[in-house]
Structure formats: structure tokens, C-alpha cells
Amino acid sequence: MTADTQVTDTTDAPGPAGGTLDAVGVSAWFGQRKVLEQVDIVMNSGEVTALIGPSGCGKSTFLRILNRMHELVPAATLAGSVLLDGEDVYGTALALTEVRRRIGMVFQKPNPFPAMSIADNVTAGLKLTGRRPADREALVEECLRRASLWDEVRGRLTAPAGGLSGGQQQRLCIARSLAVRPDVLLMDEPCSALDPTSTRRVEETIGELKEQVTIVIVTHNMQQAQRVSQRCAFFLAEEDSPGRVVEQGPTEQVFQHPEDPRTADYVNGRF
Ligand code: ADP
Ligand code: MG
């Protein structure tokens, strides 16, 4: 889409509460190897859903399936469906660019464009939407505020993003994700590369965002899962079996009164 055909977005206010994401019977393969088996999880708007479980049990694969990034891997196949507010994410009614706009992703390693300015990083994703904000400066400020970064960078918006600390870069990536007005934000171990102070800042940001954006977070940090999430799903891949959800429910229940002994062992650090 060229600049001429861009629509000016006059709705500069944050959107309403995020979308509900519903994974139904999701199985996944890499080549012949099955890595996920029949995963059913509803990720509600207004909530943070934490995905926990040992390495290799398919959490990142599941997260990528939710916004069709799974398709980028050669030989990756899929069964089941993912619904965003009832619409099939893999169906023809939703364009791929719309799926990626509505379901954003934040990765373990902060990945801003280092040579680009802080402000330009925030708006870097807007090309994808074909819309341009009525007031770009206001959008930059709003997104940086929502990502709890504004106070730290307001005096140097034209400085390169590469000069920020790791924790600041991660919040900048969150701000960039927010600029396209997503319904859902997927976060794959967003604090694993951060120090404890930065981790706290990101956790606070997640707590504030969840009223507007549905959040799904993969974390290996059991305290973090309990601090930030309202619902939790425990993934496990036993021996050569694909990853499955062993148990899910309200986070407090999964941690305080797990029904499955394997959940109890995992959340109490016994494997
Ligand atoms: P987790 O995030 O829980 O650590 P992953 O989703 O990364 O787990 O991986 C699940 C399984 O799928 C692992 O056995 C991993 O080796 C395999 N896998 C992940 N990505 C690929 C890929 N691109 N090609 C082949 N196998 C993969
Ligand atoms: Mg992973």
C-alpha cells in the first residue's frame, strides 16, 4: 500500500478491552515429528494467561501458532483451529496482515531497530496496518506511556534505540507492538534477558495493559506467573510424546491446589 492510499486514523484513543483467543484441538508437527497434541485453551480478554512447563514442551510453538508465525517454519504443519473473537485466524475472512496486526508478539531478546530513533521504533509497525495516525507525536507518547517508558525517554525521542538498556529496549518493543492497536499481545519469556529491576517494570506494565489487551505470556519464572497471570496452563512433553496441557485453570488454583501430581512437582520446582 502506498502512502497515498493510507487511511488517516482519527481514533487515537486506545481500543476497548482485547480480544478473546480460543485454541481448539491444536496439534502441530515439524516434518514427521508431532510436537503438540490436542491443545485447548481459552485466553480471555481482560486477563493474562501464563503458559508454563519445561523446555521443549511446545510453548513457543503454540504461541507462534496463535498469530500464524508457525507458517514461516518450513515443514511445519498444524491441525485444529484458533479463533479470535470467534473468527478463524487461519480462515479466509481474516487477512494475514490483519491477524499479525491484531495479535502482536514480544520476544525473549529485545529486538528494536537499534539505529532507528526511539520514536521511529514505536511507529515502525504502522506500515503493516496501512493507516497513519492523525497525530503521530501523540501516538508515540501514548504508546511509550502505556509501556511505562515515557518518563525515561521523553527528552531523547530522536536518539537511536540501541543506546537504551535491555529493559528499556524491551519496553520499547512493547510500545511498538501497541502502536498498531493489537487485541492480543503474545510474550515469549519477555523477561528472561532482563535484570530483576527491569523485570519488575515489565511486570507492572503487563498488569496495566491487561485491561486493554489480552496477554499470553510464556515464563519459566514461577513467581512471575503467579504475579502477573489470572489463568495458567501447564504444558508437558513426556519422553518422546508431544507436548500436551496437563492442567489449566485459575493461576491460584494451579499453584495452590494442583490436581495433577506432575503439576505439583513442576510448580514446586521438583523437575
Ligand atoms: P518450548 O518453547 O516449550 O521450549 P518449543 O516450542 O520451542 O518448546 O519446541 C517444541 C519442540 O519442537 C522441541 O522438541 C523443539 O526441538 C521442536 N522445534 C521447535 N522449533 C522447531 C523447528 N523450527 N524445526 C524443528 N523442530 C522444532
Ligand atoms: Mg520457548
TrEMBL record:
Could you give a GO molecular-function term held by this entry? ATP hydrolysis activity
Keyword ATP-binding listed? yes
This chain belongs to the protein called: Phosphate ABC transporter ATP-binding protein
Indicate yes or no for the key word ATP-binding: yes
Question: CDD domains given for it?
Answer: ABC_PstB_phosphate_transporter
Q: Which UniProt keywords apply?
A: ATP-binding, Nucleotide-binding, Translocase, Transport
Q: Which InterPro entries match?
A: AAA+_ATPase, ABC_transporter-like_ATP-bd, ABC_transporter-like_CS, P-loop_NTPase, PstB-like
- GO CC term (a single one): membrane
Pfam families assigned to the protein according to its UniProt record, in alphabetical order? ABC_tran
The GO annotation for biological process reads: phosphate ion transmembrane transport
Residue span, ABC transporter domain: 21-267
